[in-house]
């Protein structure tokens, strides 16, 4: 819906284009996204319940895994219900609803990137400083890291969303995406967006590339420490505690860096929608599967939970 104010037509609601350019494909995608949402929601809830009910899993590694599950639930619940609704009914979203969706998604995105660094640091201390692990990663340190993760990501999304609120949107209200994200919204603004792009780019460099560098440095030290282990079984145990995290990080960072480390003007409707599906829907669904199927302690906790 458009509203005329001071000889300018302002947008009061947006039309989410989604996958409507191919209706037949959209009907095929509905059960796929429904399955992804069910798997993400049930899988992450199961991880939280299993860890919460098993005192043996009340360790820093699983504390951060619970936080990751909360982030994944926030991410998918922000995007997928509205996407599923738009596939069968109304494809419009109010201006306020779009801003709330953007805020929640950006918050979860920043928190996930920071959590990966916290989890990498935890594995670094566990493998490289095993005798000091209980001291360096006590409950107080874990809580401080978790508070820092949520606070920094909240500050990031507050700044970028606040800057977006100052932009007028006029003439076109069609969002070339399946949810409200910064790059496609900036394309609709009828005012200069250089400040928005500069702040978003700075935040993304710090959160994406900065955290990715921290993770790579941590794993460089971890690999060097593992190679010094003499027994083959010891090496396998050390690698097994890191492989799940490294697999999730690789999947997530490749797609996020591709999407955000570039100007909004370079946004591509078809390519970016496919890439966005990976970090908004596929990754949150795979995370509980990767961490449970490749982790004997979590599998044991789930068996006890169901038995």
Describe it for me?
The chain has 307 residues and is mostly helical. It has a single domain, classed as Rhodopsin 7-helix transmembrane proteins (Rhopdopsin 7-helix transmembrane proteins, Up-down Bundle), CATH 1.20.1070. 75% of the residues lie in helices and 6% in strands. The strands form two sheets. Strands 4-3-5 form a three-stranded mixed sheet. Strands 1-2 form a two-stranded antiparallel ribbon. Strand 1 and strand 2 form a beta hairpin. The model is unreliable at 2-8 (pLDDT under 50). One of its GO terms (cellular component) is plasma membrane. Its main location: membrane. The chain crosses the membrane at residues 28-50, 62-81, 93-121, 141-159, 205-227, 239-261, 273-293.
